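Annual report, structural modelling task.

Input specification for the iron/sulfur cluster complex:
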Amino acid sequence: MDAVQVQAALTALGQPKFRWDQVRQAVFGQAVSSYDEITVLPAETRRALAEKFPLLSVRERRVDVSGDGRAHKALLDLADGRIVETVLLRPSPTRWTTCISSQVGCAVACTFCATGLMGLTRSLTPEEITDQVLFWRQYMMKKALPGRLDNVVYMGMGEPFACYDQVSTSLKILIDQKQFGIGARHISVSTSGVAPKIALFGRDFPQVNLAISLHAGTDELRTRLVPMNKAFNLAALAQALRDYIQSANRKIFFEYVLLKGENDRPEDADALVRWLDGVGPKELLHVNLIVFNQTNTPHQPTDENDARVFQQRMLAGGYKSTVRQNLGRDIDGACGQLVVLEKDQ
Ligand code: SF4
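The model returned the following structure:
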């Protein structure tokens, strides 16, 4: 929902100011699915709003639910016929997190990522980004799913810092107490390393979590896995992160997808530790290890034992490190698996 447009429409319809409060409380607080459910509004106003400004700029095409019920993946239609994917996850019994997309496809082309194989179609608007959260809130209400959706991660399709303006506007909407009211510390934005935007992000959103999609500790290996490393190499990334730490003084999370025989060897772990040593204080750097989720790429997942050895080397190097649980693998909704296939078009 575009709050600015709806407020302007209410004014144009001659409605008093408190009508907007009624709309926003119903939409963001009660997660109503249609204007018709906002019965405190005059019927004519409800009709006029529904005609001009649909509550959601995205429409459900399909939702898949994982066998354990802890991951839900939605394919959403956009107004121009494009499709985007978004995921709702339940990492613990009472907590829900949504993984949202910022673009249709992605130009970064990480070799292990299904989205990267699609190429970039376009960036999403701020409304299309935040409406993914609204969609899941409405979905949880309709399905009577217990618990609260109060964590948002920008780790779906796309590189968020390639469309910084749209992402920045969407973050303001999510944090705004009069709209979504999600705590900034409950939001994470993940970038594959658009260095010039990192320090800016630290200044604009010092309370929002930053994650770096890293995957290698040497330029040679990283350029092979994350081609954008040619534009912003590890030295440039380290400098940007030092600037970020200086302005935000926040913990940084590093995502490292473990690929069998490619970046999961002890020497790869040691290279990573050496690079991290040049970034900042150890207590501010956290390495999330992700066992590769099978995609239509030539890579293979690392063995569990190799993942543990890698983690031990991180810990021995003085860095906090966790092996992330992979929810939603069975519905292709886990990290790196989001893609719009031809059959879905
Ligand atoms: S991992 Fe992220 S940045 Fe890389 S191709 Fe996939 S969506 Fe793009």
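Residues 193 and 237 are 6 Å apart (CA to CA).
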